[in-house]
Amino acid sequence: MASLGVRVRNTRRFYVVNPTNVSYEFSWIPQGNNNPCFRCATPKGLMLAGKRCEMIFEFTPQQLELQEMFWYFKIPHFQVSQLFVFVGTTTEPRVALDRASVNFNTLMIGTKTSQSISLINQELIPFNFVLDKTRTILI
To answer: Signal sequence span per UniProt (predicted)?
Structure first.
């Protein structure tokens, strides 16, 4: 699963087909260390005979590093247990300011001036952003 930025929920949906003429229950069981970046939205359910069932996993990274988590897909009726590994990668979005610095030139004390800068998004999807005045660094 790939994420463009951190704290972004990414959903992966896929289908599992029941080719038998018997309906059965299934479950996804986390294996090993629990990774809070991954969540199974369909941890258990009933697969109807001859039908398909949608499985949903979510990946919400909190940092820019490779993440993984193992899950067992179990079908107790047939004593089936298959290990799956879910891997998530995160990349920084290509968003930047149109200039590296702003020069306000020489100013008299008490005067005001302003200049504009633009935030350029080079990705295909829009991003929300917030400027936090409490974290602004003035040099």
So the answer is: none
